UniProtKB/TrEMBL annotation:
<feature type="transmembrane region" description="Helical">
    <location>
        <begin position="136"/>
        <end position="154"/>
    </location>
</feature>
<keyword id="KW-1133">Transmembrane helix</keyword>
<protein>
    <submittedName>
        <fullName>DUF1361 domain-containing protein</fullName>
    </submittedName>
</protein>
<feature type="transmembrane region" description="Helical">
    <location>
        <begin position="64"/>
        <end position="84"/>
    </location>
</feature>
<keyword id="KW-0812">Transmembrane</keyword>
<feature type="transmembrane region" description="Helical">
    <location>
        <begin position="7"/>
        <end position="27"/>
    </location>
</feature>
<keyword id="KW-0472">Membrane</keyword>
<feature type="transmembrane region" description="Helical">
    <location>
        <begin position="185"/>
        <end position="207"/>
    </location>
</feature>
<feature type="transmembrane region" description="Helical">
    <location>
        <begin position="104"/>
        <end position="124"/>
    </location>
</feature>
<dbReference type="Pfam" id="PF07099">
    <property type="entry name" value="DUF1361"/>
</dbReference>
<dbReference type="InterPro" id="IPR009793">
    <property type="entry name" value="DUF1361"/>
</dbReference>
<feature type="transmembrane region" description="Helical">
    <location>
        <begin position="33"/>
        <end position="52"/>
    </location>
</feature>
Amino acid sequence: MEGLFSLLLLLILSLAAVFFHLIRILFNAPVDFSMDWNLFLSWIPLIIAFFADSLTKRFENIPVALALLSITWLAFLPNAPYMITDLAHLTVDYQRDLTWHDTIMLFFYAEVSLFNGLVSLYWIHRSWRRVYSKRFGNILLLLSLPTAGFGVYLGRVRRMNSWDIIHEPGVIINNLLDSILDRTALVFSFEIGLLLGILYLVLWGIIRFRIRYSKKN
């Protein structure tokens, strides 16, 4: 029930973001559904992590199955923080109403996508600690953060997407080789990973405090 409640809450937030977009359409402005598509993609790692968490609660000794789910989860995780980079599309005109609406709308989309990513990170991290060990789970967590940042770089700068792993694996490999020593890619990956890590620590701290407080009472 805990996981289903979280999914329901995130669904409500996603619908609220789409509502902001509908208001944008009512202004007779050009329609761009890429934000809605990116928001949908941010749900994929969330659903995978929810499934992994539910599965490992019932069957703890499934390291291979969890590894396969984790690889798929990691392939789609960059779609969650990716929408932060959409803020770069903002055009500033202080006398234009749409400037402020677009600012709030893009921030809302980015915020909900980040929530999806952070909750999925919490569920998959909990699954790792449950099936493998706490130490190994924490190591996987630390490795996944800059990896997600690198995925965002590949999507925004190199214009790749998660589906290219299946359709164009050769292009993915070439971009990986070209970017592995690129200074911008390294800084980008580190800073996105750092942002995710800080936000995740806040989420983890709040959840752990609530659990401990509930046990005391």
